[in-house]
Design a protein that fits this description.
About 55% of the residues lie in helices and about 5% in strands. It contains 13 helices and six strands. Helix 1 packs antiparallel against helix 2, helix 5 packs antiparallel against helix 11 and helix 8 runs antiparallel to helix 9.
């Protein structure tokens, strides 16, 4: 974002300077044209065989000289504009580094297993977005076993989500009726908001739709009277303005597009929570986290005097700490401040505290004899309990 802002600032300078030159040159050229037109008109008033006077000759010469001088100045301003434009290209080169290969793991996708995992996640992402034809083509061209791509329930939810944005509430209402009990247990407002939108769709038909709206409220909205009493009163109040139109009523906010956007977002949030699936695509999450981390890695590459490619190839961690907001590792050791990896997994001590395997090895003291066996002992860094290293158990998240 900072790089974009710097380039945008240079572009703004070009636009400002171009606008100033354009306004100035247009006015200046028009003035010179008018001056030449006046001289022409003056000379045309003379008889054809009349000789120009010395005053007229001087007037023509001075006008032509002045015009050449002003055009020369315009040419200089134009050349200066080229310099300002070239600064945009330099700003792009300076702020957008294309040598991304130096900040990535070159060996990451050399194995067939990792390539297959990547193809699987891309295919699942397309299924989540409702792009079944693209996902099917990818599976076929990548040679993936079709059975390993499980049908993602998010695909159905995404279709319903899109239907709400297209003002079609039927699929969403059918879904909420199927899970009505679970939604009620979670104190979700989704079902009410969908029926409220359906009610507003009906009364937009005007006074002739009043009876239909009342019947719909009796069938679908009556069960929400106690829970959403104030909102229910507002909906009934809308009926009083059917004759004059709801657009000029105090309840016109119920007709805004924001109500549909809110209902769609609530549907996606509540349905994902209820079914226990991720609202965000794992692939989108990874890409977003990578975009956040990339500028810091590029800055590291700039300040290093040597190649940085090999800095993090040795271990499954980045060489610097990067804040990626809500994206974080599953477990980070509170002692060494390192994220867990396959080689450095989280270990649960006998007392219940969890540290990394590396921290466990570094904290263990000299071995002591116990029951004719040597045992490495350690003292928990969070409580005074002494215990054997062998009592620590690896845990999985």
């Amino acid at each position: 974002m900072e790089a974009i802002e710097k380039v945008s600032a240079e572009i703004e300078k070009v636009i400002t300077k171009f606008s100033a030159i354009n306004d100035h040159s247009t006015k200046l050229i028009q003035n010179e044209i008018n001056a030449l037109e006046n001289i022409k008109a003056t000379l045309e008033e003379q008889p054809p065989e009349t000789q120009l006077t010395a005053q007229q000759i001087n007037m023509v010469k001075s006008t032509i000289s002045r015009t050449k001088e002003k055009l020369h100045r315009l040419a200089i301003d134009h050349r200066d504009l080229h310099g300002t434009v070239s600064k945009v290209g330099k700003a792009i080169d300076r702020n957008f580094i294309m040598e991304y290969h130096q900040v990535v793991r070159s060996d990451l996708f050399q194995s067939d297993y990792n390539i297959q995992l990547l193809d699987e996640n891309i295919a699942k992402h397309f299924y989540r977005q409702g792009m079944e034809d693209i996902a099917d083509s990818l599976i076929k061209e990548a040679g993936l076993p079709r059975e390993i791509i499980n049908e993602d329930p998010f695909a159905e939810l995404h279709k319903i989500f899109e239907e709400i944005h297209h003002r079609n509430l039927a699929p969403a209402i059918d879904w909420t009726e199927k899970y009505s009990k679970q939604l009620e247990d979670r104190h979700s407002s989704l079902e009410f908001k969908l029926h409220r939108l359906a009610f507003m769709q009906i009364i937009r038909g005007g006074l002739q739709s009043q009876n239909e709206a009342i019947n719909y409220a009796r069938i679908h909205l009556s069960k929400f009277v106690n829970k959403y009493q104030k909102d229910f009163q507002v909906l009934m109040g809308c009926l009083l303005y059917l004759k004059n139109g709801l657009d000029s009523s105090p309840y016109n906010y119920l007709l805004r597009d924001e109500m549909w956007v809110e209902a769609a977002d609530v549907f996606l949030k509540d349905s994902c929570e209820l079914l226990g699936i991720n609202k965000e695509s794992p692939l989108s999450t990874i890409v977003s986290a990578g975009c956040i981390a990339l500028p810091a890695l590029l800055n590291l590459k700039q300040v290093m005097s040597r190649e940085v490619q090999g800095i993090w190839n040795g271990r499954e961690e980045l060489p610097i700490e990067i804040d990626v907001d809500r994206y974080h590792s599953i477990f980070a050791c509170p002692i060494l401040r390192q994220q867990s990896t396959e080689d450095n997994p989280p270990m649960r001590l006998k007392c219940g505290h969890v540290i990394s395997k590396d921290a466990l090895n570094k904290l263990s003291s000299a071995s002591i004899m116990n029951n004719n066996h040597y045992r490495s002992m350690l003292k928990c860094p969070y409580c005074p309990m002494e215990q054997s290293v062998n009592d620590a158990k690896q845990i999985y998240f």
